[in-house]
Amino acid sequence: MYSFLQIFMKALFDYNPSEDKAIPCKEAGLPFRKGDILQIMSQDDATWWQAKLESDANPRAGLVPSKHFQERRLALRRSDVQFRPLKISNKKSSGFRRSFRLSRKDKKTNKTMY
User: Fold this and answer.
1) In a domain, 101, yes or no
2) Which domain holds residue 43?
3) What is the CATH number of the domain that holds 22?
């Protein structure tokens, strides 16, 4: 009396394994489009799951990025987009050295340094 749990997921993005630099074997990847229903066959690997398209007559399973792996990639991309280099100003700046000295106010240190 074994019960087999089937897992289905709806794709929230398009995926093309031939454009993915992280996939271990592009030929083993399963391309899908946003809205496709994927049947997850194996979640044994934390990074790459085995899945097949539910609507496809081809029973071939392929590699798809795991939910955790895809979320990590998106988070890294978002942090790159949000990063903005500091604006260079024409004002004269005292720079890092002065701010570092001021943050270490110690009477004994100031007496011996100056």
Assistant:
1) no
2) 7-82
3) 2.30.30.40
Counting beta carbons within 10 angstroms of the beta carbon of residue 69, is it exposed (0 to 12), middle (13 to 18) or buried (19 or more)? middle
Instruction: Tell the burial category of 9 from Cβ atoms under 10 Å away from its Cβ (0-12, 13-18, 19+).
Output: middle
* Cut 0.85: pTM above it: no
Name the H helices within 6-94: 67-82
Task: Look at 28-32, 34-38, 81-85, 86-90 and tell me which has the smallest mean pLDDT.
Answer: 81-85
Per-residue pLDDT tens digits for 43-52: 999 999 999 9
Structural domain total, the chain: 1
pLDDT at position 4, please?
Answer: 74
